[in-house]
Structure formats: structure tokens, C-alpha cells
Write a structure and sequence with these properties.
This protein is an alpha/beta fold. The protein is built from 15 helices and 5 strands. Bound molecules: zinc ion.
Length: 322
């Protein structure tokens, strides 16, 4: 069973269904990779599972033909508009999807429509969707998802029940990585630091080789004082800049912790503790705190889509001032 789904949300679905109070449309909101998609699919499995009563306390069996078909994307009554962040959803796509809602379900009690990244709908697409939201059919359920709910038209939002997905605490996320993905404590702690409370993001970071990327930044930039081409390469890509800044932040944070006498197990980069010890000795606490503040400020600039190449240079100079 995919444990990336949000159990609290599924629990709510189960309670609503039992009371016969399931609404026709829900909007899942929360950051990317927090499990909105996995939860929408889990809800579809739950609502259509043929062996729900024998699922042994789980919400669905995961093995009946219905459950399998949902997962493989072949369920005739579960329709998903996947999309991508920033990719426009056009009216034709919505129309095509919703044309199915007028047909009776083939094998399920309910037809389920899942539309991701709904903030990317054109006005025409949103209007077409609104029509469906105004005339729901008894046998259909619509699940919309968005990581930027402030960009979803108010008219759509007001017709949906919003279910917010909240990031896990760092500690909770690390515990889940250990429990469900057999990560070692140190690795789980490290991934949880970068994943901003999102289990899916932690998995993705691991697959993308975050640890090697971190080592490269530490060895080439922090310790190796290699300015170009690293900054140039990093600053050209917002995602890379984000990782770069996160690595520097984790490094400086660890230096501050070591300076305050904290135990190694609290360090994000515990496997690099020798380098951290050596590095922090060359700075005063105040220097490191100032560096930390500078990094936080640069993260904010990045969030505002400002060019951070010069701030990165300045941070480099400070790091190498020893
Ligand atoms: Zn099942």
C-alpha cells in the first residue's frame, strides 16, 4: 500500500461516506509532493473497493480488480487529468473529461474525476468545470488539487470543500522515512531537513541524488572555494539555487550547533562532522549567525524571483574570509 497518502484525509472521507454526507467536489491544497495525488487515488480506491469490509482495518484492500485498476490508471470510472505545474488546462480537456460524468458508471458506484494543478485552468475551462459543479450527478465525485490555491478562481473554490494538507514536522517525517522506507536514522534526518515536511519530496530528493549534490557543494564551493562555474551554473536554475541555499543553510546551522556544543546526532550533515568541526573553528559565533541571516535573506529574494547571483557571491566571500 502506498503510504504517501494522507491518512487523516482518508479518515475524513471514510467518516463522511459512512454518514452518507460525501460532497460532490473537494479541493486538496498543500505544497507539491505532500501526497495530494496519492490521497486522491487512495480515496478512489477506498470508494470503489470490492473488499472494503475485509480490508482488515485498512481503507481498501489494494488487491481487488477495482483497486488494481485505479492504481494502473485503467479504471473505467476513475478519470485523472494529470497536467503539470504551470501547464495550461484547456477547455477541451475539461470537456472531454466531464463528458464521461454524464455516462453511468461501468463497474463502480461512483465516477471519480481527479484534476491536478487546477490553478492552471483557463477561464473557459474553469467555467466549463463550474457548470458541472453546479449540476452534480449523484454518482460522481470530483477531486481537484492545487499547490497554489490562491490562484484557483474563487468561484471554483466556493463550490468545493477544501481539504488542506499540512506538512509534517521534521521529526515526524524522519520517523516515517525510518518506519516505512527503512532509511537509517542519519539519512532520514538529513532528507527530512530538505524535504519541507513532504514525504513525496523526501523520496524524490533521495532519487535525485541529493547527498551527492550536497557533497559537491560542500567540497567545491564551501571548502574548495570554487566560485565559477558553480555559481553561474546554479544561479541559472531556480530549483538548483534552492538546493544550493538549503545546503549552505544546513551547513551553517550545523556549524552553529557544533559551536554551541550540541550533540552530533542533531546535525543535518552528521556524516561530515569532521569537516564541520574544522570549519566552524575559524569563525566566531557572531560571524556564523550573520552568515545564517544572510542566507535566509537570500532565500527570501529567491522566493520573490529576484536574481541572487550577487548575493551568492557575497556569501562566498564571507565563507572564504577565514
Ligand atoms: Zn479493493
Amino acid at each position: 500500500m502506498d503510504i504517501q497518502f494522507n491518512e487523516n484525509v482518508l479518515k475524513r472521507f471514510a467518516a463522511l461516506e459512512q454518514k452518507g454526507q460525501l460532497a460532490h467536489a473537494y479541493l486538496f491544497t498543500g505544497p507539491a509532493y505532500i501526497g495530494k495525488g496519492a490521497t486522491a487515488l487512495a480515496a478512489a480506491q477506498f470508494l470503489n473497493c470490492g473488499h472494503k469490509d475485509n480490508a482488515g482495518g485498512k481503507y481498501f484492500c489494494g488487491e481487488c480488480p477495482s483497486c488494481r485498476k485505479v492504481l494502473s490508471g485503467n479504471h473505467p470510472d476513475v478519470h485523472v487529468l494529470e497536467g503539470a505545474p504551470g501547464q495550461t488546462i484547456k477547455i477541451d480537456e475539461i470537456r472531454e473529461l466531464l463528458a464521461q460524468s454524464r455516462l453511468r458508471p461501468f463497474m463502480a458506484e461512483r465516477k471519480i474525476f481527479i484534476i491536478h494543478h487546477v490553478e492552471n485552468m483557463t477561464i473557459e475551462a474553469a467555467n466549463a468545470l463550474l457548470k458541472t459543479l453546479e449540476e452534480p450527478t449523484a454518482s460522481s465525485l470530483l477531486i481537484l488539487t492545487s499547490a497554489v490555491p490562491e490562484r484557483v478562481p474563487e468561484t471554483v473554490k466556493s463550490r468545493c470543500h477544501t481539504m488542506p494538507f499540512l506538512p509534517l514536522s521534521r521529526r515526524e517525517l524522519a520517523a516515517r522515512l525510518v518506519r516505512h522506507y527503512q532509511e537509517e536514522d542519519g539519512a532520514a534526518h538529513f532528507l527530512a531537513y530538505f524535504a519541507e515536511g513532504c514525504l513525496g519530496k523526501a523520496r524524490r530528493l533521495k532519487e535525485s541524488g541529493i547527498k551527492q549534490k550536497r557533497d559537491e557543494i560542500i567540497d567545491r564551493f564551501i571548502l574548495g572555494r570554487e566560485r565559477e562555474p558553480l555559481i553561474k551554473e546554479v544561479a541559472a536554475d531556480k530549483e538548483k539555487t534552492r538546493v544550493f541555499l538549503d545546503v549552505l543553510l544546513s551547513w551553517v546551522r550545523d556549524c552553529l550547533l557544533v559551536k554551541s556544543g550540541a550533540g552530533d546526532n542533531r546535525l543535518v550533515n552528521a556524516d561530515r562532522v569532521r569537516d564541520i568541526r574544522g570549519f566552524q573553528r575559524q569563525f566566531s559565533f557572531a560571524d556564523l549567525a550573520a552568515l545564517h541571516a544572510e542566507l535566509v535573506h537570500t532565500c527570501r529574494l529567491l522566493l520573490e524571483n529576484l536574481n541572487v547571483k550577487i548575493p551568492l557571491m557575497i556569501i562566498g566571500e564571507r565563507l572564504w574570509a577565514r
